[in-house]
């Protein structure tokens, strides 16, 4: 493309307006969100009615910079505890780099309820106002990374080491694998498009819970129980060969093999701009039940190189933390420093005799034992003489 050094080619300011793409992204991504109450109550984003503002991706001194400030109008719907269909509207006046990533200001929400009020409707409205903002802000935090992933190659000569300009959670990309030295290594555009050309690795996450293997198996495969911890709608029959969908379509795949209470093998694909199109990983979930707890091991094989940290955070944040959020106690293995070595121990013996007097209990302990024994003996004698006297 150019014979000049990449640092020179990428030094000057460039920008690209991506507002039309951004509107489509919000319309697609936000309508996957839903939250669930303690019972059957469910609230979801049904439609994004308007996205007003500007979205640009800029480059300056070899760094990519996201510039966006938009107002979003959307509609939400839900089902109250008595079965009433509830609807309302929500306006987010400002979604910008400052309040989604820099967090220099808070995101504000303007709510309205369309359905006539009643106790169940009001309860659902309260649920929407308390839980839907968290789901929205999680999705907003992914926006900057999506901009750079899709459009960064259009304004930079090379994508190597460029994404540090905007620190975004989950901004790792399969098109930017990390070498053993820790330096990002660029790959060609053709390799990214070819499914067979995706370099992959494996991610493992373990967690131990005070629950049976069968109970945890049901929570991860039964579509009626999955929303309890995922806080989102799910489709899952738990049968080999059947398809499943979690987190409102955020994760999709197909069950390969199922051994109740023991192991689940399933294909796994993330619905994200950073996940290679058409690529599937394999998630093997094993349940190792002990006397009073069960260890779950999530082993995801086929993770695109460069996305290891993002996927690990997803498994820990959505799966492990999800189970913790509904009361399943997560057992954290103690660090060796937490164990206290006794100041004394029973002396080793040989033919019934202590081999080292230094291992015997402290003299203060043995003295106390003698005093207690003498006191018990005296009380016994007193009782022996006193009982006949009082009886007479």
From TrEMBL:
Annotated region described as Disordered, given as residue ranges: 163-197, 341-361
What InterPro entries does UniProt report for this protein, alphabetically? Answer: Aha1 (IPR036338), AHSA1-like_N (IPR015310), ASHA1/2-like_C (IPR013538), START-like_dom_sf (IPR023393)
Q: Does the keyword Membrane apply?
A: yes
A Pfam short name: AHSA1
Gene3D superfamilies (alphabetical): 3.30.530.20, Activator of Hsp90 ATPase Aha1, N-terminal domain (3.15.10.20)
Annotated TM spans? 371-390
| Coiled-coil region | none
Q: Which UniProt keywords apply?
A: Membrane, Transmembrane, Transmembrane helix
A Gene Ontology cellular-component term = cytosol
- Gene Ontology biological process: protein folding
**Keyword Protease listed:** no
Compositional bias, Polar residues, is annotated for: 172-184, 352-361
Q: Where would I find the Activator of Hsp90 ATPase AHSA1-like N-terminal domain in this sequence?
A: 15-153
Alphabetized GO MF terms: ATPase activator activity; protein-folding chaperone binding
Family of the protein in this entry: Belongs to the AHA1 family.
Listed name of the protein: Activator of Hsp90 ATPase AHSA1-like N-terminal domain-containing protein
